[in-house]
Structure formats: structure tokens, C-alpha cells
UniProtKB/TrEMBL annotation:
UniProt keyword terms in alphabetical order: Cobalamin biosynthesis, Methyltransferase, Porphyrin biosynthesis, S-adenosyl-L-methionine, Transferase
A single GO BP: cobalamin biosynthetic process
PANTHER family listed in its UniProt record: S-ADENOSYL-L-METHIONINE-DEPENDENT UROPORPHYRINOGEN III METHYLTRANSFERASE, CHLOROPLASTIC, SIROHEME SYNTHASE-RELATED
GO molecular function: uroporphyrin-III C-methyltransferase activity; uroporphyrinogen-III synthase activity
Family as reported in the entry's similarity comment: Belongs to the precorrin methyltransferase family.
EC code: 2.1.1.107
Name listed for the protein in its UniProt record: uroporphyrinogen-III C-methyltransferase
InterPro entries hit by this protein: 4pyrrol_Mease (IPR000878), 4pyrrol_Methylase_sf (IPR035996), 4pyrrol_syn_uPrphyn_synt_sf (IPR036108), 4pyrrol_synth_uPrphyn_synth (IPR003754), 4pyrrole_Mease_sub1 (IPR014777), 4pyrrole_Mease_sub2 (IPR014776), CobA/CysG_C (IPR006366), Siro_Cobalamin_biosynth (IPR050161)
Domain spans labelled Tetrapyrrole methylase: 4-215
Pathway given in the UniProt record: Cofactor biosynthesis; adenosylcobalamin biosynthesis; precorrin-2 from uroporphyrinogen III: step 1/1; Porphyrin-containing compound metabolism; siroheme biosynthesis; precorrin-2 from uroporphyrinogen III: step 1/1
NCBIfam families, alphabetized: cobA_cysG_Cterm, PRK06136.1
Length: 502
């Protein structure tokens, strides 16, 4: 079997990565990746994976191609699995063919994992089909940046100029005036539509349509930069009609998600689906306890409780882990009433075969207690599986109502082992418009990693708080949240972000 894989990373949108590519990324021992390969994919690498960046952009070469070839051969001889990750498709202007030849000469087996090329994907995300029966029946992919060591150009401008094909130029922004001039000199009409798509399929995608005679001037006025795809032909006239991606309500809006990585995926996926550029910055990590003897004892004595109140998805998850660890299951809750604070917690219980007896309409302690009192909880024995350190309002209010409350820590939260440097750099670049907080602990830990005096330097960045308790914690650090949903849930938080970005 091959131990070297030339892998196409696709155009950038994680949804455009193939299943085979993801499998190789997850299992490889050595990762050698390019500038145009989405660095987000690296989070799927094994912790022990050796990651090497060899990116090339705009003449700035971290490593020349011949040295990259040597590196791939050298690493492959270690016997470890090597993933050579390249933007788009390895064999479409990706120099994968050259790397493959080097491997063959070295006697090394390899496998190619094709990827979706930007020449198809970027136009599609900009509302431009590269073929269309009303405009053209063919498409031509062309490099806009030839090998400077070649003796003569490989371009046949006369053919391109007279062709009715859609022309798609890769890496051509720096040569745009020359490209436009040569096409017009060789027969392409000056009013031929031309589109430029930058960072196609990614959350920061931008595009515009011009004409062959004006596109170079307009690109200069817009200070247009690489990486961009240039599309020439009548199909570009469909841009405004068929554009769908750039209509997403949060396209290009940078949003920081501070939830623990284990919990963040739902919010990240929803925001990304609306076009946001999500900056995952988990400020807390959810950890197992060192000792579960107390939890095991409580589970074995569960029959003494009339109510079990779950305050979070994590509380459900870690409680059930211990339930299963001692050979028990959901049946042990038979005859006990169960409360879930919030719809996500309720769903976590339903996934385990428990339909909660009570889910409050609002998710603040006072409202929860009011609802439980209506169900006659006063004077009863109540178990609350939760984090080791959490707000004491709910157990205290239940105790005031005459309940015998046992708080049972089943997990703990800790400050995430991360630096705020990347977030501060993104703030400096103007890449962040919103910071979201979903609990008091995310607020406290965020301002431990990004000091309040630093964050005050960015007054235009809006704070979105999930609810009043979290808001009070934000205010304690000297800030007033700009956004807070009426419904204190993740969907509610997304709704206020969408309304604000609209």
C-alpha cells in the first residue's frame, strides 16, 4: 500500500472536502500543506502528527518546489504515512504531477486523492456556471502565471481570443491587464463579461463582474488581490441572477465562539451555514473528575430522590457515562421525576430514553424554581448533577422552598490551554465583528486570556450574551453586551446575530 498521498483539499469550504481526503488527514503521520489548503483542516490531524507548512503565495515561497519535492521523498522514506495537502485538485495547476514524477523516480508508491478545483467551485459559488447551453458548450482552464523559466509562452492567444469557450484563469490577477489585452487583440469583444472571484467558497468570498476592456482598471480601483479566479465569457452575465452564496446574511462577518470545543460544533455549524467567518476560541475545557466514587454512590442510592434536575448537556453526558460504567442504564430513573434546564439538555435526555417531566419556559433559576414549585417539589429530595464549580442560585432557591438538595459534581470546567494571541491578531486586522458568550465561565475565561484593557481597544466589536446571568458577568468586567436574545438558547443567540447583521 502507498504511504504517500497527494491530496486535493478542495477550494476551501470544509463541505467541499472529499471523504477520502478527510480520512487521510485524520490518519496521516506527516502533514505537508500549502497556502491555499484551508488550515482549519489541520484540526483533524492526530495530536502526534508532524505538520509542515510549505506554502507559496504571490512570489513569497516558504520552500521552492524542488525543495518541496525533496521533502516529500525524504519524509516518505521514513515509512510513515505522508499527506501532501494541496488546495483544489493536485493535478489542476497544483504541480502534483511533478511531485508524482519525483516519487516514481525515487521508487515510492503513492496515491492521488482528487479535489474539487477552484475553477469550477469558485464560479459556482458566485452564481456562474462555467458551461450553459445558452452561452457556451465548453470550458478551458488556463494558468494566468506561467513558469518564468520557460523559453516561450504556452498560451495560444489567437485560439483563446477566437474561442467561444468559457475561459477560466488561475493565478492571473497580477497579469490581468496583459490577459485582457491579449484576448481583445485576438478577437474577444471588448464588452465580453468578465468576473473575478476572490477566496471562492470561503466565508470571505468576494466577487464582481466587469467587461474585458474595463476589468483591469476596476480591479486596480478595488485593490483586488490574489487568490482569485478570473472567468471570461457570457456565463458571467448570470452572476447577479444565480448568485446564492454572497446573499448569506452573515457572509464575511467574523464571530468568536467561546464555548468549549466539545459543545461548539452546533453553534459553529449554524453560524457557518449563514456565511459567518467563525473563530473558534474555546475558553473552557470540560474535564472528567479525578474521582467518581461520590457519583457512583449517589447513583446506587438514586431511589432515595424524588427529583433529578439536569442543568446542562454535559451534566447528562457525564452522569450517563458513570451510569454505564457501573453496568446500569436509564431504567434506574424509573419512578423518579426528571427536570431539564433548556431544550438542548432535554434533547440529550431524550436521546437516552428519558422524556423530562419538566422543561422551564425560561432558563434562569428563579423561573425554574417557580415551575418546579407548581409541580409540588417543595419538601422533596432533589439531586442536581452538574459541574464541580457552578452558580449556587438554583440549589439555594430550592433549599429555601424546603427541598433537601444534593449537588453532585459529575465534571469540571477548566481554563482552556490556549493563547489569546490569534484572537487579538484577528481583532487588529478587523476580522472580528462579534464575540459570543454562552455562560459566565466563558466570559471569565475569555477575559483571562484576552485582558479587558486589551479588548477595550476594539469598541466596534459587539458582544452577544446568551442571557441575563451571562450579561451580569460581562458587566462585571466593564462591558455592556450589545445583543441578548429573549429566548436564552443557542438558536435565540443566532437569531439576534442574524437580525443585527441584516
Amino acid at each position: 500500500m502507498a504511504n504517500v498521498f497527494l491530496v486535493g483539499a478542495g477550494p476551501g469550504d470544509p463541505g467541499m472536502l472529499t471523504l477520502r481526503a478527510k480520512e487521510i488527514i485524520e490518519t496521516c503521520d506527516i502533514m505537508i500543506y500549502d497556502y491555499l489548503a484551508n488550515a482549519e483542516f489541520l484540526k483533524w490531524c492526530k495530536p502526534e502528527c508532524e505538520i509542515l507548512y510549505v506554502g507559496k503565495k504571490g512570489g513569497d515561497h516558504t520552500l521552492p518546489q524542488d525543495k518541496i519535492n525533496d521533502l516529500i521523498v525524504e519524509k516518505s522514506r521514513s515509512g510513515k504515512v505522508v499527506c501532501r495537502l494541496k488546495g483544489g485538485d493536485p493535478y489542476v495547476f497544483g504541480r502534483g504531477g511533478e511531485e508524482g514524477e519525483e516519487l516514481v523516480e525515487a521508487g515510492i508508491d503513492f496515491e492521488v486523492v482528487p479535489g474539487i478545483t477552484a475553477g469550477v467551485a469558485a464560479p459556482a459559488y458566485a452564481g456562474i456556471p462555467v458551461t450553459h447551453r445558452d452561452h457556451t458548450t465548453s470550458v478551458c482552464f488556463i494558468t494566468g502565471h506561467e513558469d518564468p523559466t520557460k523559453g516561450e509562452s504556452g498560451h495560444n492567444w489567437e485560439v483563446y481570443g477566437k474561442s467561444t469557450s468559457t475561459l477560466v484563469f488561475y493565478m492571473g490577477v497580477g497579469n490581468l491587464p496583459m490577459i485582457a489585452e491579449n484576448l481583445m487583440k485576438n478577437g474577444r469583444a471588448a464588452d465580453t463579461p468578465v468576473a473575478l472571484v476572490r477566496w471562492g467558497t470561503r466565508c470571505n468570498q468576494t466577487s464582481f463582474v466587469s467587461t474585458l476592456e474595463n476589468v483591469a482598471r476596476e480591479a486596480e480601483e478595488r485593490k483586488w488581490k490574489a487568490p482569485s479566479i478570473i472567468i471570461v465569457g457570457g456565463v458571467c452575465s448570470l452572476h447577479d441572477k444565480l448568485a446564492w452564496f454572497e446573499k448569506k446574511p452573515m457572509l464575511g462577518q467574523g464571530v468568536v465562539v467561546t464555548r468549549a470545543r466539545e459543545q461548539a460544533s452546533g453553534l459553529v455549524n449554524i453560524l457557518s451555514g449563514h456565511g459567518a467567518c467563525v473563530h473558534e476560541f474555546p475558553t473552557i475545557s470540560v474535564e472528567h473528575l479525578d474521582d467518581y466514587n461520590e457519583v457512583e454512590t449517589a447513583i446506587l442510592q438514586l431511589a432515595r430522590y424524588q427529583w433529578v434536575v439536569f442543568t446542562s448537556v454535559n451534566g447528562v453526558k457525564f452522569f450517563w457515562e458513570q451510569l454505564n460504567a457501573i453496568g446500569l442504564d436509564s431504567r434506574i430513573l424509573g419512578g423518579i421525576q426528571v427536570a431539564a434546564i433548556g431544550p438542548a439538555t432535554a434533547d440529550a435526555l431524550k436521546d437516552r430514553g428519558i422524556n423530562p417531566d419538566f422543561v422551564p419556559e425560561k432558563y434562569v433559576a428563579e423561573h425554574v424554581v417557580e415551575g418546579l414549585l407548581k409541580l409540588g417539589i417543595q419538601g422533596q429530595d432533589v439531586l442536581i448533577p452538574r459541574a464541580k464549580v457552578a452558580r449556587e442560585v438554583l440549589p439555594e432557591e430550592l433549599k429555601k422552598a424546603g427541598c433537601n438538595v444534593t449537588v453532585l459534581p459529575v465534571y469540571e470546567t477548566k481554563l482552556a490551554e490556549s493563547s489569546g494571541d490569534d484572537i487579538v491578531a484577528a481583532l487588529d486586522n478587523g476580522d472580528i465583528q462579534y464575540v459570543t458568550f454562552t455562560s459566565s465561565s466563558t466570559v471569565e475565561n475569555f477575559f483571562e486570556l484576552v485582558k479587558p484593557e486589551v479588548f477595550k481597544q476594539y469598541p466596534d466589536v459587539k458582544i452577544a450574551s446568551i442571557g441575563p446571568i451571562t450579561t451580569k458577568t460581562v458587566e462585571r468586567f466593564g462591558f455592556t453586551p450589545n445583543l441578548e436574545p429573549e429566548d436564552y438558547t443557542i438558536p435565540g443567540l443566532v437569531d439576534v446575530l442574524l437580525s443585527d447583521a441584516d
